[in-house]
Every structure is written in C-alpha cells, then in structure tokens.
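quick one before i forget lol
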Amino acid sequence: MAKRVIIILFAFLMSGVAHVQEPVPRKTDDIERAARAFVEILAKEHFEEATKVFDSTMKKALPAEKLRQIWNALQEQVGAFERQLDVRKQKVRQYDVVFVTCKFASASLDVKVVLDSQKRVSGLFFVPSQSPSTYKYTPPAYVLKNAFIEKEVVVGTTEWPLPGTLSLPKGEGPFPALILVHGSGPQDRDETIGPNKLFRDLAWGLASQGIAVLRYEKRTKQHAGKLGSMSKHVTVFEESIEDAIAAVPVLRKYTGIDKSKIFVLGHSLGGMLIPRIAQHDKEKQIAGFVVLAGTTRPLEDIILEQYKYIFSLDHMLQENEKEMLEKLKKQVTLVKSKKLSMDTPDSDLPFGVPASYWLDLRDYDPAASARRIIRPILILQGQRDYQVTMADFKRWKENLASRKNVEFKVFPLLNHLFIKGKGKSKPAEYQTAGHAAQEVIECISEWIRKN
C-alpha cells in the first residue's frame, strides 16, 4: 500500500463538493463514546475487531487486511499514533459523523467516523484537523492589529442568515471593501484548512492596509441540515452565489464604506463562480472582481485530474487506486452523458453530489462567460497549485488578455492556499502552518486602490 492514503483523503476534503453537515452542540454521549472506542481499537491495531462494527458495505470495501494497510500507511506519513485530543459531532441526514481529533508524532488529524442509527461504522476518513483546540493562529508579520477593528455581522436572507465578520480599518474612511467567497465544501469564514486560514490572512492583511473585508460562514456549513433536506435541488446558486450577492448590501449600510468601491474575491470554486456572481449583480453595485485560483474547466474533469496527480506522486498505481480511478471515470462520463437526469441516483455521481448540481454546471465556461463582465478583474494564480493549475490560468488569459481592465499575475512559489513552498505541491503540505504571501496582499491592495 502506498504512502498516499491520507493524501487521497486530504484531496477529497479540498476538491470535492462535500456533503452538507449540521453542527450539533458539544457534549459527550453514546455516539461520541462509540467513535472514541473505535479509534482506540485502531490505535491498538486490532483490525479484525474493528471490522466487526462495520456495516455490510464497509465490510466489503475495507476488510481487516486493507484497514491494516491504510493505518500503517497513515502512520508512515504522520508518525505513530500518540493520543486522542478532542471529539465533536455533526449530523448528515440519517448519519452521525464524529470527528475524533488525534495527535500523531508529526501532525494532528481528525479521524472522521460515520455511524448509522445502530452505531455501525458506515464511513471512515482521515482529514486535516478542524478542532479549535488543535491549532493556535499566529498572525503574519504584515498584519497590524491596531490598524483595524472587527464587527460581527449577519449576511444572507432571513431564510439563510450567516454569521460573519467585518474587518474595518480605523479612521473615518470611506474605505474600499472586499467580500470573500469560499471554495468548495462546508467552509468557515476563515476558510480554515488544517492550521491555515487563508481568508483570515486576507482580511487582516488587507484591513491593515486600509481595505475593509467581509467574510462569513458558508451556507453549506451553517445551514447544512436544512440544505440537506433539499439536496436534490441544490446548485451553486444556493451553495455560494446568493449569499455573495446578499453580502453587498451589508457593506453598503456602513457609513465608513465607500459604496462605489465594493469588490468581490472568489477563491477556487468561488473564483470559478465570479462570472455568475457578476451576472446576478443586476444593479451593478460591485465595482470589480478578484479571482484567486479560479477553475475554468469542468469541475468533474478537475476532480479526476487531481486524483490522477495524487496517485502519481510515488510513481506507482496500486490496485485499489486503479479501482477508484475507474469508478470515478465512469461517474465523470455519466456527468457528461445525455443520460444524466434529475432522477439519476446520487450514488452514481462523483462524491454523491446530486444531479441538480452537475446539470446546473453543464456547459458553463467561466473564462468565456467572463468576457461579458465589463468591470475590472484581477486574476491571480499560484504556479505550484496542483488543484487549479496553470491550464486554468491560461484559459482565463486566452479569453481576457485583450481587455485593458483585466490584470493577471502568477506567483511561482505559491500553492492553492497562496502559501510559499518548494518542489511539487502535495496535499500533506496543507497540514503545515503558513500564511498567504505578503506579495498577494500587496497585489490585491494596490489593484483595489487604483480601481
């Protein structure tokens, strides 16, 4: 078994359109105890015993020997298991999802245990820890904490209220302002990935330079249960676009904000959706747009490409990886097929994301659609990014290079989180604490000021 097992699961966290989830108040209960007990069995390497609490699907997919290989490969990457740190629970439709935060020799991870109504294990993942007790955020040197204040705000409609934070520069203003739109998955307002918080870096870095920044909890995180009940009809409009548009009037009501200089920044999926956000800005209240690592190719192709890249990192393709790729290829083919309909089972589609989502994105070409945006656009790309690559950046440039009010910038050393690194980018590096590069903050700040 290759060392890539945990890397694969990191990629799922980052690239997939994750299942919606509903936060549950913190308490210790039978569900959490069952998950803790299961992780303890894994830690003791009693794999036959562990598989006894699997449901029928898991027993077929992950027999004891394969579970042993995964656990061993995990520890090859992050070191020996040391202890359990924390536990928290969420609800995903009829399942309980328990995150048992564990300390390994060189990293802390969440062991994500999915339990059915009979407390049988229906899913098992190893993902970057999101436990608030695991990491302490230290601001980068470019942040001047005495240069701004933060206000708690609410973004969204009365049906979908989202807690948010406005980082507001001190002084009379009026200040230009920026709205941050998340990538895929149930993201928090800081776009937390392991110890890294790209959106907090951006908000605090830009606020230190006199630019107000609004960030908020993503709907798929804050209202997961409610979204889950209508998941058969969810599209990117419900996931991201509607709330990005709703954030504009939140900024406009503040006297310290320059209403003529409100911009929107989209990262990853959010960048891909910038043309649609512009389309829904009927009153043209947004002054311009920033695209950070915005996807331009079909999402299903991007997902397949990412998996191929990850599986290639050790130059070996294991049998289970071949099977996973074949399954994903069939799912991608179905997404593109005329056979895809609203009646297509979620289980036949990538990551169990419903047909409504894929049908809504069919024939959507972000780069070509961006040609209809007459307002200024800034497009930034990290050259080490393996998730959204230079191929995507090239397509933005091919479609928009002739426009005088569109600017492009490539950062050779930056990855998908716009953090500096060396060599080929790997998912495991998201577990290393870092910050958005200062040159990114300065580039965005300079562009906003002149537009």
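fyi The longest strand covers residues 81-92.
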